[in-house]
Write a structure and sequence with these properties.
Layout (H helix, E strand, L loop, with lengths): L5 E6 L3 E6 L10 H15 L6 E5 L4 E3 L4 H4 L4 H7 L16 E5 L2 E3 L1 H8 L2 E5 L3 E3 L13 H9 L1 H10 L3 E2 H7 L4 E3 L4 H14 L2 H16 L2 H14 L4 H11 L10
Parallel strand pairs: 2-3, 3-5, 4-6, 5-7, 6-8, 7-10
Antiparallel strand pairs: 1-2, 8-9
Helix pairs in contact: 4-5, 5-6
Bound molecules: acetoacetyl-coenzyme A (CAA).
The site of acetoacetyl-coenzyme A (CAA) has 23 residues, from helix 2, strand 6 and helix 4.
EC number: 4.2.1.17
Family: Belongs to the enoyl-CoA hydratase/isomerase family.
Keywords: Lyase
Length: 259
């Protein structure tokens, strides 16, 4: 199956690899990319031969977030009515085989949220994680305010969401956001090695382990994510969202009016 915004391949006849492929936009996540990723994940999940999946990006960016250019002019009505921006993001949560995020470079905004939706994150030593949506006059809209505190605790999560600062790979490992950090040139070998180990175990036990760990991790997550979604959409009714995104698109400093 040919995709426009992702590439897929199978390694060792059992590991499905999805590579985000919008290099000029630092793999910014638009609706079509997320629809393609959902489709590829579902195909791998339904393929008997595949035991594990890996999502990865480029050396410079896993993904620099949701596509700001595409979002910049959306109104509250657009995003609320059609569940725009994050509509196809939840597909990954329905995938029953393990999904590993292999992250190098920027994993910001929706990119950090996508990595956190995967079952675990293996990071290259150049990885940078962040939730900088506050700079655009909005908040994380794909689970960031819910998954980040669960992963790194309230204080670091607040720090990242409120100041927009990035966390490097060392800090991310220390905080528990990522499971391992490896040199950039070893990233895919490490992720593939982990995936092949998983593929060697009993498929049912693997699926059960994933389901149980998620149960521990995601209690009441639905409420949290839905609450977040409504507020994320509501911010498209503000002047500051238009200002923040227009400023990014036009490469100027934002002047927020707090309305
Ligand atoms: N959306 C659209 N385009 C993006 C993008 C994004 N999220 N991030 C980067 N790009 C584009 C840039 O506009 C630029 O395009 P042009 O070459 O056409 O100008 C290209 O990618 C390269 O980016 P930079 O020139 O900015 O590269 P840099 O190395 O100087 O900076 C960066 C890299 C720090 C990641 C910077 O690009 C950046 O801050 N990006 C935005 C990050 C962000 O705010 N993400 C949150 C998005 S909102 C969100 O994700 C909502 C949600 O929760 C669902």
């Amino acid at each position: 199956m040919a995709y426009e915004f992702i590439q897929t391949r199978v390694e060792g006849d059992k590991v499905g690899i999805i590579t985000l492929n919008r290099p000029k936009q630092l793999n910014a996540l638009n609706g079509e990319l997320m629809r393609e990723m959902g489709q590829a994940l579902k195909e791998f999940d339904g393929n008997e031969a595949i035991g594990c999946m890996i999502i990865t990006g480029s050396e410079k960016a896993f993904a620099a977030g949701a596509d700001i250019g595409a979002m910049a002019t959306y109104s509250f009505a657009d995003v609320y009515r059609d569940d725009y921006i994050t509509r196809d993001w939840e597909t990954i949560r329905s995938i029953r085989k393990p999904v590993i995020a292999a992250v190098s470079g920027f994993a910001l905004g929706g990119g950090c949220e996508l990595a956190m939706m995967c079952d675990f994150i293996i990071a290259a030593d150049n990885a940078k994680f962040g939730q900088p949506e506050i700079k655009l006059g909005v908040i994380p809209g794909a689970g960031g305010t819910q998954r980040l505190p669960r992963a790194v605790g309230k204080s670091k999560a607040m720090d990242m969401c409120l100041t927009a600062r990035m966390m490097d790979a060392t800090e991310a490992e220390r905080a528990g956001l990522v499971s391992r950090v490896v040199p950039l040139d070893k990233l895919m070998d490490e992720a593939l090695g982990a995936a092949l180990i998983i593929c060697g175990f009993g498929r049912l036990a693997v699926m059960a382990a994933k389901e149980c760990v998620n149960r521990a991790f995601e209690g009441s997550l639905n409420d949290g994510v839905m609450f977040e979604r409504r507020l994320f959409h509501a911010l498209f009714a503000t002047t500051d969202q238009k200002e923040g995104m227009d400023a990014f698109v036009n490469k100027r400093a934002a002047a927020f009016k707090h309305q």
